[in-house]
Design goal:
Strand order of the largest sheet: 1-4-3-2
CATH architecture of the largest domain: Roll
InterPro entries: Glyas_Bleomycin-R_OHBP_Dase, Glyas_Fos-R_dOase_dom, PhnB-like
Protein name: VOC family protein
Radius of gyration: 17 Å
Domain Glyoxalase/fosfomycin resistance/dioxygenase: 4-130
CATH topology of the largest domain: 2,3-Dihydroxybiphenyl 1,2-Dioxygenase, domain 1
Structural class: alpha/beta
Number of strands: 8
Distance between the termini: 39 Å
CATH class of the largest domain: Alpha Beta
Number of domains: 2
Pfam family, one: Glyoxalase
């Protein structure tokens, strides 16, 4: 198996809702495993997500989890999940869904380097960058 790099997102009890949302945005197959399934049934965290993995038809893989019991949730800073490519329709569709009920830092618009680019933070606090490569004519 070849190595791959993909984001692993941390949540404070809302990983299930976040990953169900990402499945609505990107489509694909979602696997959710709870702390209860891993031997923590009967605890307050039993229904929280120990591991989530979304594999999309477009080849994206997102993984993540709720903060494990006994650990303090800390929102990671200094990163964004970046989507880029030349499929204008698909990327604009992702942008619309990800930015809905979120915060737009840079509106999706043509930039000085020639591509269409935007930055937003989705409703779950995850920052996204979308870059739509413009073909040279």
């Amino acid at each position: 198996m070849a190595s791959r790099l993909n984001p692993y997102l941390s949540f404070d009890g809302d990983a299930r809702r976040a990953f169900e949302f990402y499945q609505e945005v990107f489509g694909g197959t979602l696997a959710l495993h709870t702390f209860g399934e891993s031997g923590m049934s009967g605890t307050p965290q039993a229904d929280q997500i120990m591991h989530a993995m979304l594999e999309t038809p477009g080849g994206y893989t997102l993984m993540g989890a709720d903060t494990p019991p006994g650990m303090t949730y800390t929102r990671a800073g200094g990163f964004s999940v970046s989507l880029s490519g030349d499929d204008d329709e698909a990327l604009r569709g992702y942008w619309e869904k990800l930015s809905a009920d979120g915060t737009v830092a840079v509106p999706l618009a043509k930039q000085m380097w020639g591509d269409v680019f935007g930055m937003c933070t989705d409703r779950f606090g995850v920052p996204w960058m979308v870059n739509i490569v413009q073909t040279q004519s």
